[in-house]
Amino acid sequence: MAQYEDLEFDQGADQTIELQLVNVDGTKKNLSGYTIAAKMKKSYTSDSDDTTTFTPLIASPVTDGIVTLTLTNTQTDALKAGRYVYDVELSFVDSDDNTVIERILEGRITVTPSVTK
């Protein structure tokens, strides 16, 4: 089950989220061979035109389990103020060549309006 976290972003500002992933036993998750995907939308049923995609980066060394997700100020400036939903998925290809996807984080993002543009 994914962790749930509500976030707040300022419209027109760069945003970075850093995730420190750990295993059940508390050790750092080795992200070798993993990929990260993260998106936000106005609602779960919105079409793809309403989707904003985060730029994911797995930090080096991958054994530290650190992921950063970023949106540029241009991306957040294009967002209308209000509430959005988001999730973050971790995936890898197993030894049987199957793609395994795990949702690791989800929640709502409130975008606060900008006065200065």
Structure write-up:
- With 117 residues, the protein is mostly beta strands.
- The protein has a single domain (3-112), classed as Immunoglobulins (Immunoglobulin-like, Sandwich).
- It contains one helix and nine strands.
- Strands 1, 2, 4, 5, 8 and 9 form a six-stranded mixed beta sheet that branches. A three-stranded antiparallel beta sheet has the order 3-7-6.
- It is globular.
Attribute tags:
117 residues; mainly beta; Immunoglobulin-like; six-stranded mixed beta sheet; 1 helix; globular
Question: Topology of this protein?
Answer:
Elements: E1 3-4, E2 7-10, E3 15-20, E4 35-41, E5 52-53, E6 55-58, E7 66-71, H1 73-77, E8 82-93, E9 99-112
Parallel strand pairs: 1-9, 2-9
Antiparallel strand pairs: 3-7, 4-5, 4-8, 6-7, 8-9
**What is the H-and-E element order?**
EEEEEEEHEE
Tell me the number of structural domains. 1
Radius of gyration: 15 Å
The description of the largest β-sheet is: 6 strands, mixed
Distance N to C terminus: 39 Å
Supply the CATH architecture.
Sandwich
Approximately how much beta-strand content do the residues carry? over 45%
Please give the count of helices: 1
Mean pLDDT: 94
| Count of individual beta strands | 9
Helix content: under 10%
User: What is the H level of CATH, i.e. the homologous superfamily?
Assistant: Immunoglobulins
The low-confidence parts are none
CATH topology: Immunoglobulin-like
Q: Which structural class do you get from the secondary structure elements?
A: mainly beta
